[in-house]
Amino acid sequence: MGMIVNCAAYQGGRRVADIDIEHDAAAALDLVPSGDGARADRFVWLGLHEPSEELLRRVQTRFGLHDLAIEDAHNAHQRPKLEVYGDSLFVVLRTAQWQAGKIQYGETHIFAGRGYVVTVRHGASLSYADVRARCEGAPAMLRIGASFVLYSLMDFVVDNYFPIIDALEAEVDALEGEVFEQPSGREDIGRIYEVRRELLVLRRTVAPLLDVCDRLMRFDVPLIEPDIRPYFRDVRDHVIRVAERIDDLRELLTSTMETNLLLASVRQNDVMKKLAGWAAILAVPTAVFGLYGMNFQGMPELHSPYGYPAVMAAVACLCGYLYYRFRRAGWF
Amino acid sequence: MGMIVNCAAYQGGRRVADIDIEHDAAAALDLVPSGDGARADRFVWLGLHEPSEELLRRVQTRFGLHDLAIEDAHNAHQRPKLEVYGDSLFVVLRTAQWQAGKIQYGETHIFAGRGYVVTVRHGASLSYADVRARCEGAPAMLRIGASFVLYSLMDFVVDNYFPIIDALEAEVDALEGEVFEQPSGREDIGRIYEVRRELLVLRRTVAPLLDVCDRLMRFDVPLIEPDIRPYFRDVRDHVIRVAERIDDLRELLTSTMETNLLLASVRQNDVMKKLAGWAAILAVPTAVFGLYGMNFQGMPELHSPYGYPAVMAAVACLCGYLYYRFRRAGWF
Amino acid sequence: MGMIVNCAAYQGGRRVADIDIEHDAAAALDLVPSGDGARADRFVWLGLHEPSEELLRRVQTRFGLHDLAIEDAHNAHQRPKLEVYGDSLFVVLRTAQWQAGKIQYGETHIFAGRGYVVTVRHGASLSYADVRARCEGAPAMLRIGASFVLYSLMDFVVDNYFPIIDALEAEVDALEGEVFEQPSGREDIGRIYEVRRELLVLRRTVAPLLDVCDRLMRFDVPLIEPDIRPYFRDVRDHVIRVAERIDDLRELLTSTMETNLLLASVRQNDVMKKLAGWAAILAVPTAVFGLYGMNFQGMPELHSPYGYPAVMAAVACLCGYLYYRFRRAGWF
Amino acid sequence: MGMIVNCAAYQGGRRVADIDIEHDAAAALDLVPSGDGARADRFVWLGLHEPSEELLRRVQTRFGLHDLAIEDAHNAHQRPKLEVYGDSLFVVLRTAQWQAGKIQYGETHIFAGRGYVVTVRHGASLSYADVRARCEGAPAMLRIGASFVLYSLMDFVVDNYFPIIDALEAEVDALEGEVFEQPSGREDIGRIYEVRRELLVLRRTVAPLLDVCDRLMRFDVPLIEPDIRPYFRDVRDHVIRVAERIDDLRELLTSTMETNLLLASVRQNDVMKKLAGWAAILAVPTAVFGLYGMNFQGMPELHSPYGYPAVMAAVACLCGYLYYRFRRAGWF
Amino acid sequence: MGMIVNCAAYQGGRRVADIDIEHDAAAALDLVPSGDGARADRFVWLGLHEPSEELLRRVQTRFGLHDLAIEDAHNAHQRPKLEVYGDSLFVVLRTAQWQAGKIQYGETHIFAGRGYVVTVRHGASLSYADVRARCEGAPAMLRIGASFVLYSLMDFVVDNYFPIIDALEAEVDALEGEVFEQPSGREDIGRIYEVRRELLVLRRTVAPLLDVCDRLMRFDVPLIEPDIRPYFRDVRDHVIRVAERIDDLRELLTSTMETNLLLASVRQNDVMKKLAGWAAILAVPTAVFGLYGMNFQGMPELHSPYGYPAVMAAVACLCGYLYYRFRRAGWF
After folding, report:
1. ipTM, interface predicted TM-score of the complex
2. Chain C within 8 Å of E287 (Cβ-Cβ)?
3. Within an 8 Å CB–CB cutoff, is residue E258 touching chain D?
């Protein structure tokens, strides 16, 4: 159900034309100014959600987008990247949200050029209505043009990674605590495995953004106004922080696994020492009782009235002594 | 059985001369226009399958190919690479297909220059008839010339890696599932080992392509028209995605191995605790029964009428108590 | 409770105006000379400790600081970095102190530009009163201007990492010693895990400083006088030393873990050999005593007067022989 | 026993003067034309095998070689490298051969300059008579001069690595197979260790060649004719292939070790389950037989005529049931 | 006890003025020519051993050394580095010696500039009297000036690493041998740990030299004469060889640890199989003897004259059969 979510024209930092999306999506699109104005502060911001191929093709025709970018936008399973086609940009972002103890991924594709910004959302991603509102609340910045909208979208996407990292960190903390308190069961180990897997995917989501920000910030990419560069540097900084925290969590979990393995080995030694110790103690009565269960005739002890209590006492003493020795050696 | 699979001349994006391959291969080759036209849109596309050395030598003479490239083309065990000889290109690609739960590898060598594209297939690779058909279906692009054919071939080869990755991912998912459900047997571990090995080989197949694409895209290589560069960027993007998925699978399998080792250790602890627990419980009747099997004379319990039931009851109680204790400690 | 800790104006290396902080912080700030003098040796050094947003805004207005830097300064959880805004610098440092067997982290943000240095402290960090005193004690250097103050602050922060490394090294030495002396208990392993975790965080604190120093030293950053560059090279050298020692400790702990695991395995073998050995020795009397506990009629040994002592002697000999053999094989 | 192995002068791709080595080595050297001709196609090719220091000094004087290169050439334990002294080259290669299941290493030092190529062989390396013959068989190439001889020697040395890799691969395949078929014994593990060690040394032998080829191919080194550069690119390609195969083998062996460890753990679990199962089954008769070995008076079962067979039947049933249960649980 | 070890003036490669160090160190220093001659071949070479701060300050004043360098020279715990202050060099080297099975470290700081070389030794390092003698024995080289002295010192320090590597390699070889011959005891494992630790420290000592040599060799550092550059390239080559051997040893020890762990696991399996096998064999007589120890009345076997020998024979046969089976299965 491809649809236009929102569409408005901006000039000098303010919304000047609002396009009604009650109408048919395609018709609405025809109302959009063609956006080839030479002034950076005049542009159309069009938001799409899982558009049909037909709608995408119309958008392509109107804004003169590159075939390959449209192909990518239709086919949601891209890695985050920045492509420069002539003087327009195509940015792919992967959005992520923490839902019910799992990370849900979505994708947002952004086309930005002189006079237009088109966002295409796929899958589980938050609406960009908030971003639009925040942009409209800062007309001084919005006047900079399409590159400010691009910054706002990237900032929003990256900021949404932080609660996920927080949740994963909390989980790792909990897993860590359990490792030292009790022998890890299958559930804990399985959970460690899953978190490692999630971190692997999340890293793939976040890491390529570093390269995207680097290029937006440093190189001679079109469309990016000089005033906005420090803002992309700020986004880059957030990306690095997310990436570092992911790496730290991954390293911590590796460390947790190693520690777990060592603790399992230590615990096995403990069990084995206990086993060996009790086997040794119980060997005493077994041997002695077996001894006096023999049917030899010439066994004087059997006939002495003190034989039975004496043997029992000897066994008790020996067992007690062994118990004391093992205890002192730390086996029990 | 070296043979010419297909041979045609193109001009302005359309097939203008079709060479009959019913004739002797060598004779057919003589019919090929010499291809030294200065116009990029006029070229011969010649497809060979495991050609004889003699045929390769004729092709070399006709198109003026470099000795070293011909040597490589004859000897199929190259790593993927791009060589520039003067103003012609020599590209080695490794093709891969998923057949009967295994990856089958082939090799394709491409010579491309002003006026010609020669493909040489070795081993298990799909025919490029589809690629040719698709190219002929897009005359607007085919007009660009030999570099578009090169792109189409590379795109086809790279796209064929995706079903392999999908198959390997499915397998890794299945192996993962089994790790947590039951103790890994030799078959599972052997399969993990094999998949790791396959990923090792696949990575060697895919990774060098990144460098090939980088050079085709960025540097001043001959023959590549500017319009086609974004397309090589697209191929590069696919290569990165394949490479990343391979790396992810490798990391997952490493993680699976570690988890497996830890689980094996945990399971061993479980077995040992059970063993120790039952040994402890059984030690009770063993000791008691041994005790009253002794032949001492002065053992009053033996002569009491309540001796037997009392001892049995005591043993039962003690065993029951131990069982309860071990159960509560999580040993059973 | 945002507050101005200290505020003074310097000229030619000497303190020329001392601003009384007994008054309201905001009022005090108004007394500060505006600091846009063209001479490098004339500047204001303002120290803040966890300032309120309102105070930060006033500072921003007065010195013309960038919005993003102020945002960062208010929000303490930055990674160490250097940002250049026009001809002013914004440096984020993470301070660390060893307190009660743990590392306590703080943050210091430094704004430096023509005519001013503003330090903003967050969390557990030492006061910079010492740094100020030391700077004032070296007027020849202080005359260089704001970049010397920046150097002095960084030098102070980096020098404070050394006692932490010393403490961690001492701890690692102690843990190492214990590994070889006795089986590692849960506490040791837990402590190794914690130290690894602390090193992970500390590395994140120290490593980005290398990049900060590199840029301050080499590139064309504003404000840094040529004479001061060797001093930043010196700071960089200290950072490298700290980073290398952290890496060494991390590697040592990895090595310790591996050694621990191997030793646990060796110890388990030892226990198992002992267990097996004693089980073998005790099997002898068990079998023999069981043998002569049988109730067969035709067992001549039972009726011989030498039967009992002969059997006991045979058992003792056999056990002694086994003990000797195991001893020689190194099992006991 | 330093000696001149072969010495000839070449011009225009053909051998023009053959120097008899029947004479004293030193005398023969005096017959060598001084080789300072300005034409690249005229040069002397001198082959030495473990020369005495005195002979090396004479060679040095004649061709004006650098002190440091001569020192290196005398002292065979260099790493592969390329040194440029003025307009002459000094190349160190490590040769390798597979002999009796081991790699035998040798060293070849090559001095190449205007008008001369001097090869110095040390240790177990093949004679370069074949290389000389092959060069003389390709006069068109040999006309290029000293750089073609250098290429031919490097090509020969690198091609000799392939059979070694093949042999090691075969060995790794065999070791892999054994890992899954039977528990690894000490011999297998020892062999894995040895192969890893051999690969470590081989990698050190091969890897530096990449840098040598890169410099010969790309940079502005003297003596290398432009026509010969693609040939060095070809050598580089072979070096990469050898290096990649070494890395793959190393990774496979790491994987084999991990798999081995996991399998050892799985096998231990199997043995322990068997041990525990049989212990449980045998505990039944032990307990029951002990029970009826007691000497209590009031044990009615002992006096019943069906007591003995009933107890035996009960024991058999219980043991059989336990066996069935363990079997179903996969313990046997 | 700061002192001047040796001090002499050189010109044209020969020692022209010898300063008597019998006098007070400070007075001796005043006799030193001020060394500001413009000719490279005229310089003073001053050797100090753990000088007092006061002496260092005098040296600083005389030769115009930088404050930071003097601070470093006084405080011995630097990492190897090269600092350029104006047109003078400051080099820090870490010296190492193999003494009583341990590496003893020292430090040497070298100040070199137009007209002077000052060496400052700290800790356990060899005297540089040999280096001085060797330099004076090569007047042709010594004429080059201070950079030749610098080379000679570095060459001497680096050459002294080789015997250490040889000793460590011998130790690793010995440890390797023991791993495969017998189960590793705590001493072996402890020794492996220590060697790994020593290699860690040694690597930190050697690795930074690579960067020092690179800069001395390639970049536009002051003072280094062009003729001496190949010599620094030679030192660099030695450093690489040392570094590679260190890395190889580290990798070998990692491999040894893994192998050790696997062997420990294999050995444990062997012990457990033996334990299980003997337990099974001994279970037979235990059960049978227990059986005929029962006090049932209706046990006809007990009363048969062949009962006893028949049962004994059956037990012996069964045990023998089991022993044969376990032997064939490789458990014994």
Report:
1. 0.85
2. no
3. yes
